[in-house]
Structures are given as structure tokens and as C-alpha cells.
Design goal:
Blueprint (H helix, E strand, L loop, with lengths): L29 H11 L3 H17 L4 E5 L2 E6 L2 E5 L7
Antiparallel strand pairs: 1-2, 2-3
Length: 91
């Protein structure tokens, strides 16, 4: 009879950085530039509201990351979507 194989050792999980720079990382980050570009494409009245919402997100969830998903800015925290900022033609 063969001896039983020893159980494999548990390998500690490595912490993986989430995609996208932090909101507070500065205007130079690619994601922040993409959000800037999205806002710049909006009509002036909607742009003002979106910039206020963006500032609110920055103040409220400073450790969130920004990215563009489905064509609009999304903010995530710990890999979970927190909110999205979008402007629509009739809303």
C-alpha cells in the first residue's frame, strides 16, 4: 500500500492592486484624463452638474478608483462599483 501524499501547503494570497488610479492620484493619471475628456464632451449645463458630482465623490469616497466603463465614468472601491456619472440627452 502506498503512503498517502502530504496535503499541499497553503499559499498566502498576494494583494493585487485594483485597476485604475485613485481619484486623488492627480490630473495626470490616464483614468482621470479619460473622465476629464468625458466631462469636456458634455453640454455646459450638464458639465457643471457632473463636475459637482465628481467633487462630491472625491470628497466622500477618497479611496475610490476611477475608470471608464460602458462609455461613462465609474468609481469603484474595493473592486465594487460605487457610482457612475453620466449625462443623457433628455435627462
Amino acid at each position: 500500500m502506498a503512503a498517502p501524499k502530504p496535503a499541499p501547503k497553503a499559499v498566502p494570497r498576494k494583494t493585487v492592486a485594483k485597476a485604475g488610479p485613485k481619484i486623488g492620484a492627480g490630473k495626470g493619471s490616464a483614468a482621470e484624463r479619460a473622465v476629464d475628456d468625458y466631462l469636456a464632451e458634455q453640454p455646459p449645463d450638464k458639465r457643471v452638474l457632473l463636475e459637482k458630482l465628481r467633487a462630491l465623490v472625491n470628497d466622500t469616497v477618497p479611496d475610490a478608483t476611477a475608470s471608464i466603463k460602458w462609455g461613462v465614468p465609474f468609481y469603484q472601491r474595493n473592486g465594487k462599483n460605487v457610482c457612475a456619472l453620466a449625462a443623457f440627452k433628455d435627462h
